[in-house]
Amino acid sequence: ASKSSHERDELIKSWEDDTFAGFSSSSKCRKKINKVAPERKYSNRSNGTVNGSLDYGEYASDREIRRRLSRLNKKSMDSESETSDDMDKSSEYSKSNTDSTSSDTESDTELKSQSQTGQSRADGSFTPDEGFDSMTDDREWGARMTKSSLVPPVTRKYEVIEEYVIVSNEEDVKRKMQVSLPDDYVEKLNSQKSGTEESDMELPEVKDYKPRKMLGEEVLEQEVYGIDPYSHNLLLDSMPEELDWDLAEKHMFVEDVLLRTLNKQVRRYTGSGNTPMIYPLHPVVEEILKGAEEDGDVRTVRMCQGILKAIESRRDDKYVAYRKGLGVVCNKEEGFGEEDFVVEFLGEVYPVWKWFEKQDGIRSLQKNNKDPAPEFYNIYLERPKGDADGYDLVVVDAMHKANYASRICHSCRPNCEAKVTAVDGRYQIGIYAVRKIQYGEEVTFDYNSVTESKEEYEASVCLCGSQVCRGSYLNLTGEGAFQKVLKEWHGTLDRHQLMLEACELNSVSEEDYLELGRAGLGSCLLGGLPDWVIAYSARLVRFINFERTKLPEEILKHNLEEKRKYFSDICLEVEKSDAEVQAEGVYNQRLQNLAVTLDKVRYVMRCAFGNPKDAPPPLERLSPLEAVSFLWKGEGSLVQELLQSMAPHVEEHLLNDLRTKILARDPSGSDDIWKELKRSLLWLRDEVRNLPCTYKSRNDAAADLIHIYAYTRCFVRIREYKTVTSPPVYISPLDLGPKYTEKLGSGFQEYCKTYGENYCLGQLIFWYNQTSAEPDCSLARASRGCLSLPNFSSFYAKVQKPSLQRVYGPRTVKFMLARMEKQPQRPWPKDRIWSFDNSPKVIGSPMLDAAVHKSHLDREMVHWLKHRPAIFQAMWDR
Ligand SMILES: C[S@@+](CC[C@H](N)C(=O)[O-])C[C@H]1O[C@@H](n2cnc3c(N)ncnc32)[C@H](O)[C@@H]1O
User: Fold this and answer.
1) Would you say the CB of residue 407 lies under 6 angstroms from ligand 1?
2) pTM of the predicted protein model
3) Which of 105, 190, 512, 783 is the 20 to 30 A CA-CA neighbour of 695?
């Protein structure tokens, strides 16, 4: 979403206050901010190279590429300023949905950077406010920690639990966690292992029960520190060149030896209530030196001496580690073996709808939505698609009730993975080692978390210290190339067409069930839903499959365009496989969003109708007679609205005359009602064009609108459900972020979500998006013009002095035609003569007709609008 310039200024001000340095360049002089996207590994994640099994040679060259890229980025950012993309500003994907002229860019405003010099205290540590350097000009070393990104000095306490705690809808949640192996599980597993199975449908991974590693004995929960990518590179740069260490060894020195020693030193802060936010690396290197001297390890001695010399001589460079909060460290002398079970990820289990209610509550209670997001402790527990009852999900939140698994930190080169396994007939999230873990090594896994918020992404500077660190422990989604196919092939009209089709059929075909089954959606997710919802879901799955085939090409095109700016030698094969991997990620995310949507609407339907199956289809096409009532003669018909709007501006006898003629032209009695209705509307159009226009009464514009209605066939009634108010969810100040703990004390806040009449329709239409708390309002905004035509009252002034915006000249008509012809799925802008219903009861437009019939916009309709003579021109129309 684009930011208004005011918001941007505010943001920049807050950055100034916080000595913004992460993902940015900041130097002594004022500089532009440049966003550095997370670097992706130039490897194929799907062919078994995940989690650190790549050899270091590849990593090393990867880093080199990144260095070159960031150096070039730096150059280009000094000379370029991005411009906003008008296409995105008013699309239905934009949060604000206004047609403002705000800009997407953050790069064209200058930043004042502050210079602060870190100084050691007597105890060798820094105070939180010290030691933030933004003065260095050397910006090619990647993301840097910011003051605002640091974990606040509140150590969260949690209630230790031994089992999952289900928050609500216990039966439902239990069902979703229950394993159901397919009858031919063993054969499937074998054929998948031997590579004879075509489908790569993820099968449940059955494991025997194993006790977790004992806290306090095999693992320790302690304060942990890490280094940002910048510091990793700073250390590499400080290593004496004359030593015969290859790059891989240098990386491992930082990632392994240094981090282990660091975390041994900082352990003492655990529970002390006095943990510094940053910690100097000097004593860490000294300790390594001491050990190496004792062991007679000359190479390491030289390395440490070299680094210490650099620390001494490069006073402007800050050699520090940053606090990550609590973490988990291996405390077993012989270490952990590869594939060892470490611990279950326990927490409170939420049905998805309830989790999102809580998120809506958090957003509504957070007074300032730019507040840093609180640390997150939640993981989706997803049923494997190869389960006999199919895919589904619940949310495990480990913020308040948990075990030590919740304190495991993220790494971009983790030593563990979090995976869903089937243990004793129930799915759980288990943390398993993916390689050997040494004594003293921090236990980590890749959070694989995504955010749609650029601010959140940028604030989440990663401190894993790994050589392949992506810079943020979150991934940014919902941007650029990933949305291409969705925007082009799955616009508002397309989605309404699919929904209308599903509502009219209100039955599920065998092909629908097969399609859903092939995507891994089965009885667990779909059970109990009305047929029209299942039929619609099958149509969405068809789109998701279509997108999966189209997207790699789009992503590849985008990535190549980006990289060609910086590199001449690009390996097309690597880029292609990278694009495939990313497209697969989008595919999985789409299915996840569909599942989340279905869970939300099922809940609301259950509240509104008792049995969700009783929820009637929300879209219903008007019969010809109903269309006559809606347009021509019914109570509150459009023609009535037109006459009422005209009344203050037209002489009474003229109006009465028109009224009588309208009555006489009622098309309801005709054999071909549609034909007659069109004829009557075209007659009315010409009658209205014959009435005198003034700048307060734009009969010319009203006549154009009648014309557009005359060419519309498909009118659709929106059936509203009753509103539903949920029982309260309880939100603790900790859920809102540490800042609120001070403000709100320790009391829980209640939040009751109300679901509006069109919530289900809105959520189903915006199935791919979970960020809107009121998808029904988004729906009304997205419908403007393209689905629901303007009100007649738009063209007649109620006030004495019309605003200058009541402009309806050739340019407005041209704009309208361009929208209708070239961008039919985009809503019409707000700041024009048109006004729209906030919640239209009936929708319909020639553009919807075209989508429903998969045809072009009616040429005759367009031709008339293009060529009809102008009958009036107000002063400001030109
Ligand atoms: C699931 S919690 C992990 C436990 C947390 N450190 C604590 O003290 O409770 C996730 C939070 O830990 C911190 N964290 C975890 N991994 C990190 C990393 N690689 N870099 C920076 N911060 C990290 C972030 O504050 C994140 O929001």
Assistant:
1) yes
2) 0.82
3) 783
